[in-house]
Design goal:
By secondary structure, this protein is mainly alpha-helical. The protein is 52% helix and 5% strand. It has a domain of 204 residues. The longest helix has 34 residues.
Length: 313
């Protein structure tokens, strides 16, 4: 007997053995890990004794070793768990930053090649306007055309910023997929969704608000970033509507301010180590920090659970 159910991510019909009940199966189409529903009650009548009520034998799921569809444990004790797509609910979960870093590190090691190449592609693509503009500005300044150079500088910034944000959205998409244990592809660097323009506009507006807060005073800018940083991932992840992203970001960070600060410090430390390695290490350090923040978002919003060795749940 087999169990048939739909993938919660792409609606692909999946079929697994009965022994996979209560475990997780990976969709061959989108690589999402989905929870396998329990076995439906058998149609045949249970054995009934001469006296008393019928005895029911509960179905016991097979051990993980017998189930080829069960989630495989990762090194260090963590498990690559998928998002709870079936419930569609985002909730606040207070996390341990060591769990975030441990899970992110395993994902980074697994997908290192794609993560590094994607970061390089995004970095170069983001400079398609800035580099030519910089050359023009240098020539204008050398000829004493400082006012025109200033205008070119402002115009190039207005053009290059949306491009940079677009590829940042692509990097976040790849980081989220890696943190969820899904297959990552270089093509994901090009963010393609029905909300692309809305998401781009929302992120640009949020960045502008942070800029204004920093201009007003350093402290308000830091607080906005501290309490609302999941905004970026909520927009890209499309788990809630654009109108709910700001308030939902605050829900996610409630009780996680300490973990967020530690995540910031860890990210800064990793980037410094990358810079010390003749700056070449940044190529590898930056993708790790991206996956760390994606993992932090998923764990704090209840979409990803880190399982320690010996954990029963």
């Amino acid at each position: 007997m087999s169990i048939e159910f739909q993938c919660p991510n792409c609606s692909q019909m999946l079929r697994v053995p009965e022994t996979a009940a209560g475990k997780q199966a990976k969709c061959p189409k989108c690589q999402t890990l989905a929870n396998v529903p329990g076995v439906a009650p058998a149609s045949e009548q249970p054995t009934q004794p001469m006296f008393g009520s019928p005895q029911e034998q509960p179905n016991k799921p097979a051990p993980t070793s017998e189930n080829p569809y069960a989630t495989a444990p990762m090194a260090g004790g963590g498990f690559a768990a998928g998002p709870e797509k079936s419930s569609g609910e985002i909730r606040n979960v207070q996390v341990d930053v060591s769990d975030v870093i441990s899970h992110a590190f395993e994902c980074w090691k697994r997908d290192l090649g794609i993560l590094v190449v994607a970061s390089l592609v995004a970095g170069f693509a983001s400079q398609v306007v800035a580099i030519p503009a910089g050359i023009v500005i240098a020539v204008l300044q050398a000829n004493g055309e400082d006012e025109i150079a200033a205008i070119v500088n402002v115009a190039s910034s207005l053009l290059s910023t949306p491009i940079q944000v677009y590829f940042m959205m692509g990097l976040m998409t790849i980081s989220l997929a890696s943190a969820r244990g899904q297959q990552v592809e270089l093509g994901m660097i090009f963010y393609r969704a029905d909300n692309t323009m809305g998401a781009l506009g929302a992120i640009l507006l949020f960045m502008f608000l942070i800029f204004l807060a920093v201009l007003a005073c350093i402290i308000p800018g830091i607080l906005v970033a501290l309490f609302f940083w999941p905004f970026y991932f909520l927009v890209v992840d499309k788990r809630v509507g654009l109108g709910e992203t700001f308030s939902m970001a605050r829900v996610i960070t409630t009780g996680n301010s300490g973990a967020t600060i530690l995540l910031w410090l860890a990210s800064i430390g990793i980037m410094i180590v990358g810079l010390l390695a003749c700056c070449v290490g940044v190529i590898f350090a930056y993708p790790l920090t991206q996956v760390m923040w994606a993992t932090g978002y998923l764990m704090m919003s209840g979409q990803l659970q880190f399982k320690r060795p010996g954990s029963q749940h």
